[in-house]
Amino acid sequence: MEIESMQDDAVDILIIEHEEVTALFEQFRGLSARSKDSKKRISEDICAALSVHALLEQDIFYPAAKTALKEADLIAEAIVEHASALELMERIRQMEPENELFDATVKVLWDQVTRHAREEEEKMFPRLRKSKLDLVALGARMLEYRRVLETGPGRIPAPAGAAGDPSLA
Ligand SMILES: [Fe+2]
Ligand SMILES: [Fe+2]
Predict the structure, then answer these.
(1) Which residues span the domain enclosing 35?
(2) Which domain of life is it from (predicted)?
């Protein structure tokens, strides 16, 4: 889906990213035990997509949500969960797919990320939709920031699977 042309708001953008990451995890799960190279490659795609997503939330979305909702606890919890996911991702990046803990580490990351994303979608996002926060303007800022993250210095490359998606170019 072409994100920009739809004028999606910040919440739509984050939900689409949740779905993209879920699809990558499902791709990983569908690989046979012998597909070590593909496992490594898809795990890298997962980590790249999650890194960009986490930064969009932490640097742009959460600060705005914190002000709009006045629910510092909810945001603080989300930030701690991000830190935990980043640690697991770092471990996965350093790990060879032959490592007997590789699949399990990806699985634990998936479990954590799924729970975290569900909390966002069921608690944080609906409350924000009811708030006065301008989610369309926030979404535009997030897309701009994502462009910088994916193309600027020290860039985080877009997942290979998304290479044909013009919204990620
Ligand atoms: Fe998050
Ligand atoms: Fe999220």
Answers:
(1) 7-152
(2) Bacteria
